[in-house]
Amino acid sequence: HHGHEHPHEFASANRDHFNETAHEYDDRPHALELARRLGQAIRKTYPSLLDEDSTAMMDFACGTGLISRELCPYVRSIVGVDISPGMVEQFNLRASNQGLAPGEMQAVCVELKGSTNELNGQKFDVIVCALAYHHFSSIEDTTRIISTFLKPGGSLLVADIMKSTLHGEIFPDGGHIVAHQHGFDEEELRRVF
Fold first, then answer.
1. Which of 1, 66, 157, 179 gives a 20 to 30 Å CA spacing to 140?
2. Which pLDDT does position 181 carry in this prediction?
3. What is the pLDDT of residue 66?
4. Are 176 and 41 in contact (CB under 8 A)?
């Protein structure tokens, strides 16, 4: 495994960067627009996964909750997870400002390891991870860890930029891929818009 950064150092560099930018994160108009389009794409492509009476969702690497706020009306509850205390604080501040109870939408600051009893043993119907995969030191490790939080037959939805467009520029057609992993045996990639 030479050439791999230590996940912990990688995580901690990310945490520092996002802590510094948390308060301005939502002020970028393209971020809001992107979250809106992504939320629409998920609802249009996977309507059967979202049920406002029953769907328990995790927003992994949730940041300030842009995608959570788009999807919140369509699911029963959302738990945001992020390693940045600054992001989690913004997420929860915005949720409570919108009058949402913690049981409906709340973020926790934790680095998930996939061990038992994390998140009090909660399991989720859907886990969404938007625009964060390119930050992870190991996609395989991250996917394996967050998949342990899915209920049987649950779905992991991953949306990310298709090539390295750092500093948040979006390439002209705004193309994003949603990967839908269902019950761990089939993986489809769809161009959603």
1. 66
2. 35
3. 92
4. yes
* pLDDT value of position 15: 62
β-sheet with 105-109: strand ranges across: 105-109, 77-82, 56-60, 124-130, 150-161, 176-182, 186-191
Nearest CA to 149 out of 54, 58, 46, 48 is that of 58
- The CA distance from 118 to 72, in Å, is 23
**Which stretches of 27-84 are DSSP H helices?**
29-45, 66-71
The residues near 104 (Cβ < 8 Å, ≥ 6 apart) are 72, 76, 77, 78, 95
d(CA 19, CA 152): 34
pTM for this predicted structure: 0.73
Structure tokens belonging to residue 192: 């959603």
